[in-house]
Amino acid sequence: MASVKAIMNCIGVETSGTRSLLFSLFGFIRGRVPPEADTTVTAQVSLLQLVRDLQGQHIHINVIRVGFDSMTGTTLDAAFANLDYSIYRIRNIYRPQSLGIGRVEHYFIDQADANGRDNIGSDDEANALWNEWSVQNDGLDVFVVLSISGFLGLSPVEGTCDKSDKDDGSLGGHITRPPEGLSRTFAHEVGHFLGLDHNHGDGDCPTTTAGQNRLMAQTGCAISLRNSVNLTNTEGVDMRDHCSVKSGC
Ligand SMILES: [Zn+2]
């Protein structure tokens, strides 16, 4: 097994000093495994599994939370657990298509600086959010806000890796949604960013169970928020072809 330190160096995670692997390598903002939304299942992560993921192709993600400074105490802790659950789930959802999630970094925009974008009211406002803010690194910028009206998340289909371009980010969802719903939307929007379209037309749903069980079916079409997260091999090829995808460590 490759050394964990070598893997951390490969994905650009700091290895000096004392660090929590659950924070710095797994990317959990609370430094621990988030609770499972399905209480019949025990949440677990595997260091060996993650190392294997990162020996294959992978992407880095910047999770940018907007307006979370309006929350405190247990509300804020639950919000962080919700963000961590999206990180936990997207790894599991993308793994069958051999696309790992590497470095996860957390950034924030305070309410006072957000110009109202902590509460998204339109597609234009979502576009403005990722146009106005970028993290200047090789990770995908995925924003999570306090509320969204009229839709659940938004992303350019095949976003750009040029951080000076307007289509360099996506809106992963809003934090007041239950973990299973938010995490599905988060993975769905990253799928769009990596180049995937819906597997159905606008205002339609797939007609087959298999179609309704795919990640790229909109939430309103999904049979189960937890289980309707399948990616086809063709989608896997498309995703792994995106400019943001890194080769294996
Ligand atoms: Zn969509």
Describe the structure.
The chain is α/β, with parallel strands linked by helices and 249 residues long. Helix 4 packs across helix 6. The longest helix is centred in the middle third of the chain and has 22 residues. The mean pLDDT is 96. The structure holds zinc ion. The site of zinc ion (ZN) has 4 residues, from helix 6. Zinc ion binds next to helix 6.
In round numbers, the mean pLDDT is: 96
Ligand kinds:
zinc ion
User: Rg from C-alpha positions?
Assistant: 17 Å
Lateral arrangement of strands in the main beta sheet: 2-1-4-6
Estimate the strand proportion. Answer: 5-15%
Largest sheet: 4 strands, parallel
Structural class by SSE content:
alpha/beta
Helix/strand order, N-terminal first: HHHEHEEHEEEHHH
List segments where confidence is low: pLDDT < 50 over at least 5 consecutive residues.
none
User: End-to-end span in angstroms?
Assistant: 12 Å
How much helix is in the residues? 25-40%
Structure annotation, total helices: 8
Number of strands: 6
The shape is globular
Ordered list of secondary-structure elements with their pairings:
Blueprint: H1 4-11, H2 21-24, H3 47-55, E1 58-66, H4 73-94, E2 100-109, E3 119-120, H5 123-132, E4 140-145, E5 147-148, E6 169-174, H6 179-193, H7 209-212, H8 233-240
Parallel strand pairs: 1-2, 1-4, 3-5, 4-6
Helix pairs in contact: 4-6
The structure holds zinc ion (ZN).
Residues 188, 192, 198, 218 line the site of zinc ion.
